Amino acid sequence: MSERIPSMSDDELVGALAVLEVEWAPTPDLAREVMAHVSSDRLPRVVRLPLSRPKRIVLIAAATMLLLAGAAVAAKIIIDLGAVVVEVTPTRPGLLPTASIAPTGEPITLREAGILLGKDVTLPPRLGGPDRLWADEVFTESGKVPRVTMAWRARPDLPEISGTRFGAILMIFEGDANQASKTLHEDLGVLQVETVESVDYYWTTGTHVLQLLTSEGVVYVRVEGNVLLWRDGSHTMRLETDLPKADALRIATSMGTS
Amino acid sequence: MEDRPLEDAELARRAREGDDAAYEDLVKRYGQIAFRVAWLVTRDRGEAEDSAQEAFVKAYYALPRFRPDSPFRPWLLKIVANEARNRVRSTRRRQGLALRTAAVSDGDAVPSPETAALAREDQEALIDALNRLSPPDRDVIGYRFLLGLSEAETADVLGVRLGTAKSRLSRAMGRLRTVLEGPV
Question: CA-to-CA distance for B74 and B81, rounded, in angstroms?
Fold first, then answer.
């Protein structure tokens, strides 16, 4: 080695590093491969509706109105998890919707779910791989966001959720824009908060109404199962089962948070 | 250079609206730096190629979450580095491929004044010293100076706070100097 390098000042050393001619591996033709994946039908895009501008505006307005509609009817907003808001009203509703399953979008694979959510999907060990996966894409006030839904069929250790044929339904909402609003009724169910390793988990039971923004507009769904809600980074998680709270919590915490 | 952020934002906006050609432009523009970041993480050409490719696909589908007022390159490189790190973790191995100086040009190319100022012997000494550092030290110096990432980009690629990246770089440079000053 010449004597020059050890005697360099810090600035000179930084300058020397910046002009080093490193033998990099040749850059492959990434564009061809990448565009083949994002352009072909092998990776289905999720519900790209040919929406007219007026319809798009209506859907965005519907998203922003979810909160307002609830606030007008109910007394107070109890929790705001970003994508999902939970409200409690003192009185029983006069009429509950009959639909028990919300539109879930198009079937996808687990890999595609990871791509849509921008992270690898961690599965709860107790549930294993889901039997069904779907993705929907909704217009919110902060843009278009994906929502992934996974479902596990009912089995001996996973009792059927009333009104569905599934034992567990996990919805993953992206972002902070409001996409869903749950209205609980004090005389029909409960809302409890459990904190595990600094993460707040919101447990709700009892028949309630879920207002859900979908790619086809706002739908109202009657929910009979027990629901656990929590935040994981930029995602809001919603796990619906017929299990007791302790079991649902074990499933949720086994997925970890980022 | 002043126009680059705006141009990236415009391309990203068009890509989000379904203009695949706009996204292809972004892939071509940042393909090399993405591949090199992935290579520094994986030290394996095949893994680096797969990481960069998968990261561009993920970034495409994540475009709705990209904030148009923020720069595209750091956002992309963070996705690339995450993808590459996940691959290293899943394969539980990291290649020990060493850095090497580029082959001496046998053509008529005239070296830049800066390169000419750094003698071949000095270049090889620096590369040798870098290869004797621990991988974390070599990575942070590689991102910041060999790839020319900004401090903020370096922090993003490392997945740490800016202050942490700065202190890691400072310590790594100290150890590089120790290696350079030590016995060969």
Answer: 10
Of B183, B181, B138, which is closest to residue A4 (Cα–Cα)?
B181
Burial class, B6, CB count within 10 angstroms (exposed 0-12 / middle 13-18 / buried 19+): exposed
Ranking A6-10, B18-22, B89-93 by mean pLDDT, the lowest is B89-93
Considering the domain architecture, whether residues B72 and B121 belong to the same structural domain is answered as: no
Q: Order of strands, edge to edge, in the sheet holding A84-89?
A: A76-80, A84-89, A180-185, A208-214, A217-223
Q: Note whether A133 and A105 are within 8 A (CB).
A: no
- Domain range for B57 is 4-91
Instruction: Report the CATH number that the domain containing residue B130 is assigned in CATH.
Output: 1.10.10.10
The ipTM assigned to this model is: 0.76
CA atoms within 13 A on the CB side of A38: 29
Q: Which of B18, B28, B122 sits opposite A4 (nearest CB)?
A: B122
Q: pTM score, two decimals? A: 0.49
Chain B residue with minimum CA distance to A235: B65
Domain count, chain B: 2
Chain A residue with minimum CA distance to B144: A18
Same domain, B20 and B87: yes
Whether residue B103 lies inside any domain: the answer is no
Hey, how many other C-beta atoms are within 10 angstroms of the C-beta on A195? 8
Spatial contact of A238 and A82, defined as CB atoms under 8 Å apart: no
CA distance B137 to chain A (A): 14
B56 and B123 together in one domain:
no
Cα–chain center distance at A27 = 35
Q: Is residue B138 in a domain? A: yes
Residues of chain B positioned with their CB less than 8 A from the CB of A25: 35, 39, 45, 48
pLDDT higher than 70, residue A181: yes
Token pair for A57: 């505006």
Establish if B15 belongs to a structural domain: yes
> How many angstroms separate the CA atoms of B25 and B35, rounded?
16
Count Cβ atoms below 10 Å from residue A131 Cβ, excluding itself.
16
Judged by CB atoms closer than 8 Å, whether chains meet at B57 and A118 is answered as: no
| Chain B touched by A108 (CB under 8 Å) | no
**Residue B106 in domain:** no
Select the residue of A21, A38, A115 nearest B115 (Cβ to Cβ): A21
DSSP-assigned states of every residue in A118-153: TSPPPPPTTT-S-SEEEEEEEEETTEEEEEEEEEEE
CA atoms of A23 and B104, how far apart (whole Å): 10
pLDDT score for A243: 94
Tell me if chain A has a CB within 8 Å of the CB of B19.
no
CA dihedral sign of residues A84, A88, A94, A98? positive
